[in-house]
TrEMBL record:
<dbReference type="InterPro" id="IPR006101">
    <property type="entry name" value="Glyco_hydro_2"/>
</dbReference>
<dbReference type="Pfam" id="PF00703">
    <property type="entry name" value="Glyco_hydro_2"/>
</dbReference>
<protein>
    <submittedName>
        <fullName>Beta-galactosidase</fullName>
        <ecNumber>3.2.1.23</ecNumber>
    </submittedName>
</protein>
<dbReference type="InterPro" id="IPR023232">
    <property type="entry name" value="Glyco_hydro_2_AS"/>
</dbReference>
<keyword id="KW-0378">Hydrolase</keyword>
<dbReference type="InterPro" id="IPR036156">
    <property type="entry name" value="Beta-gal/glucu_dom_sf"/>
</dbReference>
<dbReference type="InterPro" id="IPR006103">
    <property type="entry name" value="Glyco_hydro_2_cat"/>
</dbReference>
<feature type="domain" description="Glycoside hydrolase family 2">
    <location>
        <begin position="796"/>
        <end position="899"/>
    </location>
</feature>
<dbReference type="InterPro" id="IPR006102">
    <property type="entry name" value="Ig-like_GH2"/>
</dbReference>
<keyword id="KW-0614">Plasmid</keyword>
<feature type="domain" description="Glycoside hydrolase family 2 immunoglobulin-like beta-sandwich">
    <location>
        <begin position="270"/>
        <end position="381"/>
    </location>
</feature>
<feature type="domain" description="Glycoside hydrolase family 2 catalytic">
    <location>
        <begin position="388"/>
        <end position="546"/>
    </location>
</feature>
<dbReference type="InterPro" id="IPR032311">
    <property type="entry name" value="DUF4982"/>
</dbReference>
<dbReference type="Pfam" id="PF18565">
    <property type="entry name" value="Glyco_hydro2_C5"/>
</dbReference>
<dbReference type="GO" id="GO:0005975">
    <property type="term" value="P:carbohydrate metabolic process"/>
</dbReference>
<comment type="similarity">
    <text>Belongs to the glycosyl hydrolase 2 family.</text>
</comment>
<feature type="domain" description="DUF4982">
    <location>
        <begin position="724"/>
        <end position="783"/>
    </location>
</feature>
Length: 903
């Protein structure tokens, strides 16, 4: 199978006007050319509705929630939808037409009623004085600042209130010279049920909070004067199983084009033939003529190589033949073209391959004037899926070493930030991760651009549910009306990203349980997908469907959640699916679901390699912490050790996506009293759990890895004194043999046995001092690891991930605080309260510590350390150069300070 080459309509640009990647090839851009301007600044924000609205601006009637379902098990069976009929006017008929460009059957497109509901609402009116509203900059997640809820339980959604109406208003000046052009509002994500007015006219909206969408402002604008954009969001309660975020949490753009222009997400690039010597690049371009007159245009697309920073290098490497195209007024045409690239630089995942990229620059000419220039970054690569061996990229085998991640960025919430996402990916790659499953919704487009640039493979996923519901007010309410538009919108936006190798149309959907009826929905979704893209396989993550059921047969890839190795699925289901589908690739779309709290070691330690969390065995119901020995999992999951044994015993399995790479807000299994999950290999603040080195030892076999646990501070003077007691020591290593020493005395040299992935000395007696492991591989020294008993907490220490940041109001420095003894060693049980202050033109955006039970609001500058560590996130104020001095103080400890530079 060959790949469709990734297309993005923008590089990672955060400037006010998105600059073109390339020079203009000697063709001058006129005022009618394409512009893409950020609308992230100068918004006014208000929570709630004006008095007396009484549901007049509701999208639809929602089912009544008679009893909260929050806190039910994460893999609970979905149920049938509650049927509700509208008994009063709603906005749905005015919003549905926004979906029309994505509905293939003209007879099923929606007719908009007359009028502009909401025009008489004071907050919609252009004359309304919003100066008393909060000034905000997008992306904006209004819910993340808290405070955390004390009652609820609302644990599933992170104990943060994300529901209710929220309003955004912005003034927009449009010059008179824009008259005769097309102006579009592009919203990359709005949570959720967005309704948009322009100058008191209802333009449209989009219910699904994770998809990007476009609205045409052209007929509603005042040219040469002021305009007002008003957006109302109405996020429901109990709409998700995790923290959904709130607000306009992704970028918003104003796009200006000529009346004749490349359509929204209007290019599709594929590479049907790829070799080291030559690649064929096929380009399909959709052109819209929104004008009242016919037009004759000439189209040509040039291909340029991009360097590692996404900048063009040199002249065009190829171009298509020029084509003359007549367009009738108010019409669209699809134009096909091809180009050949000699000695192509292929896109592939590190470390064995390089994520080389190109950009296709499509020019529309009217006579000698360029009327549109549309840029599509892409990559040249081939995909092949082998049922016996797995995934091949450019004919080179690539094991899927992936993780699942939800979309929140910890203390920053759902508001997308490029640097925060990049930091997450950098740490995952350090661990050896090469793949990311988008759980369970379309991501921010900039996240896909990061994956393209860094060479991370992606399973792009659109829905968490279909017609059956998981929570009372989730996507099932709008699936019947919107599934086609939402699926096509995601595919058209994302289809040109080289990082995407698999499409997923669902996750653990309730239709697994409904036999042929569920399979019919799957067939409908697969048909839509293949109409948009035939170059990648389609899948649907299944946690219950069995091999002999109709739903799996509709998928190109068999994706199993916990069925390969899970406590509820003994024995492994891999062999049954292999026997039923010998020609299909099989992978673990969710594996493990292991649980732990960083640095929280609990005793006794069982001799098994995997088990559920129970009081006194892996979990403490009083502290709501889970043992960090990395042996415990959710009831439906397993430890990494047991999961790897199942994969290694079934070598045709193409790999895994671990649940999860990072902890995330909400879904705090097994303790719904907490704020955030325990699943992550990395905690919510970005601190590595011990499991990080367990995965690194498997995923980076050529890197000497040796990591000892637990810490070695168990003296009788501590809260958990254990002198003279059995304190098991485990070693995570990719060596095959090791000897453990305590204060120089050998505790024995042991070897890994088949299907073992850690070395463990289960009968060690604790004594203060040093533990040291000497690791061997193939009989030769390979690595060493040490742990020492520290002194008492003495001082604070600060370390930034980057000491120089951009003064653009977006770039971030993540500063780690450590509580150390008099020798500078981190005190592993320290929980002192720390206060951060910042001097200079910047701000402390948020703090955290990775403790899932900490309900201190994220903006607070004061926070307790959790097992020796805390985090401060710092950004500079836009346009203000100067030094930032971060200081940290704690009672009884020597303080610390750190200087950051901005430019």
């Amino acid at each position: 199978m060959t790949s469709a080459i990734p297309t993005t309509r923008r590089a990672l640009l955060t400037t006010a006007a998105a600059a073109s990647l390339l020079p203009k090839d000697s063709v001058a851009r006129t005022r009618s050319g394409r512009e893409r301007l950020s609308l992230n600044d100068n918004w006014r924000f208000r929570l709630g509705d004006p008095e007396g609205l009484d549901g007049a601006l509701d999208y639809d009637i929602r089912p009544e929630i008679k009893k909260s379902e929050d806190g039910k098990e994460a893999d609970a069976r979905p149920v049938d939808a509650t049927q509700v009929s509208a008994t009063r006017p709603v906005l749905k008929p005015w919003i549905l037409p926004t979906a029309n460009p994505f509905i293939s059957d003209p007879d099923k497109r929606h007719t908009r009623p007359e009028g502009h509901p909401g025009a008489q609402v004071s907050w919609v009116k252009s004359t309304f004085d919003d100066s008393g509203w909060e000034a905000v900059t997008l992306p904006h997640d209004w819910a993340i600042k808290g405070p955390f809820l004390e009652t609820g339980p609302y644990g599933g959604m992170g104990r943060l209130k994300t529901w209710g109406a929220a309003w955004y208003r912005r003034r927009l000046e449009v010059p008179a010279s824009d008259k005769g052009r097309c102006l579009f509002l592009d919203i990359e994500g709005a949570m959720s049920y967005a309704t948009v007015w322009c100058n008191e006219r209802l333009v449209g909206g989009w219910p699904y909070g994770y998809n990007s969408f476009r609205l045409d402002l052209t007929p509603h604008l005042n040219y040469g004067g002021a305009n007002h954009i008003v957006i109302r969001l109405d996020n429901p309660p109990e709409s998700a199983r995790w923290y959904p975020g709130a607000g306009l949490y992704r970028n918003v753009w104003l796009v200006k084009t000529d009346r004749v222009h490349v359509a929204h997400w209007g290019t599709q690039i594929t590479t049907p033939h790829v070799s080291q010597n030559e690649a064929t690049v096929d380009i399909v371009t959709r052109i819209d003529n929104d004008g009242a007159e016919a037009a004759d245009i000439t189209l040509v697309t040039r291909l340029y190589a991009l360097d590692a920073k996404g900048k063009p290098s040199g002249r065009a490497v190829s171009e298509t033949a020029r084509q003359s195209v007549p367009l009738a007024a108010k019409s669209s045409r699809v134009i096909k073209a091809s180009a050949t690239v000699s000695q192509p630089r292929l896109w592939g995942p590190p470390p064995a391959q390089v994520p080389n990229r190109y950009v296709a620059v499509t020019s529309l000419m009217q006579g000698t004037r360029e009327i549109d220039r549309y840029e599509t970054p892409f990559g040249i690569r081939s995909l092949r899926f082998d049922a016996d061996k797995g995934l091949f990229i450019n004919d080179r085998f690539v094991p899927l070493q992936g993780v699942n991640n939800h979309h929140d960025l910890g203390a920053l919430g759902a508001a997308f930030n490029v640097r925060a996402a990049e930091r997450q990916l950098e740490m995952l790659m350090e661990m050896g991760c090469n793949a990311l499953r988008m759980s369970h919704n379309p991501p921010a487009p900039e996240l896909l651009e990061l994956c393209d640039r860094m060479g991370i493979l992606v399973m792009d996923e659109v829905f968490d549910c279909w017609e059956k519901r998981k929570t009372p007010l989730d996507f099932h309410l709008i699936f019947p009306d919107w599934h086609e538009a939402d699926l096509r919108a995601m595919l058209r936006r994302d289809r040109n990203h080289p990082s995407i190798v698999i499409w997923s149309v669902g996750n653990e959907v309730g239709e697994q349980y409904s036999g042929e009826a569920g399979a019919q929905i799957a067939r409908r979704l697969v048909k839509i997908l293949r109409e948009e893209d035939t170059t990648r396989p389609v899948t649907n993550a299944m946690n219950w469907a069995q091999a002999d059921m109709p739903l799996p047969a509709e998928m190109d890839v068999i994706s199993l959640n916990y069925q390969g190795a899970g406590i509820r699925s003994l024995p492994s289901k891999f062999p049954a699916f292999r026997a039923k589908f010998p020609n299909k690739i099989i992978l673990h779309s969710e594996s493990s679901a292991a649980l732990s709290s960083r640095g929280e070691y609990q005793f006794p330690v069982p001799g098994t390699n995997s088990g559920p969390v129970r009081p006194g065995v892996g979990g403490d119901p009083k502290t709501h912490q889970v043992s960090a020995y990395e042996l415990f999992a959710a009831d439906f999951g397993s430890s990494a050790d047991r999961n790897w044994a199942a994969q290694d015993q079934n070598p045709y399995v193409a790999g895994e996506f671990v649940w999860t790479g990072w902890d995330y807000l909400g879904e705090p299994t097994p303790y719904y009293e907490a704020r955030s999950s325990y699943f992550g290999i990395i905690d919510l603040a970005g601190f590595k759990k011990d499991r990080f080195w367990l995965y690194q030892s498997r995923w980076r076999p050529d890197l000497p890895v040796a990591h000892l646990l637990p810490h070695w501070n168990w003296g009788n003077g501590t809260q958990n004194g254990r002198e003279g007691e059995v304190t098991p020591v485990h070693l995570f290593t990719n060596g095959d043999e090791a000897e453990l020493f305590i204060n120089g005395k050998s505790q024995g040299r042991i070897k890994k046995r088949p299907f073992e992935y850690r070395l463990r000395w289960d009968y060690v007696t604790y004594e203060p001092g040093e533990i040291r492991a000497v690791v061997y591989k193939d009989g030769k020294p390979w690595a060493e690891a040490r742990r020492q008993t520290t002194g008492a907490a003495h001082a604070l220490a600060l370390e930034a991930d980057r000491s120089v940041i951009e003064a653009d109001g977006k770039d971030l420095s993540f500063v780690t605080l450590r509580i150390v003894d008099d020798k500078g060693e981190t005190v592993p049980f320290a929980k002192d309260k720390v206060t951060f202050t910042l001097e200079g033109p910047g701000e402390i955006v948020a703090t955290d510590n990775g403790d899932p039970t900490d309900f201190t609001a994220f903006p607070s500058p004061a926070r307790k350390a959790f097992n020796g560590l805390a985090l401060a996130i710092v950004r500079a104020k836009p346009g203000q150069k100067g030094r930032l001095i971060l200081r940290a103080q704690a009672s009884g400890l020597t303080g610390a300070q750190l200087t950051l530079a901005t430019h």
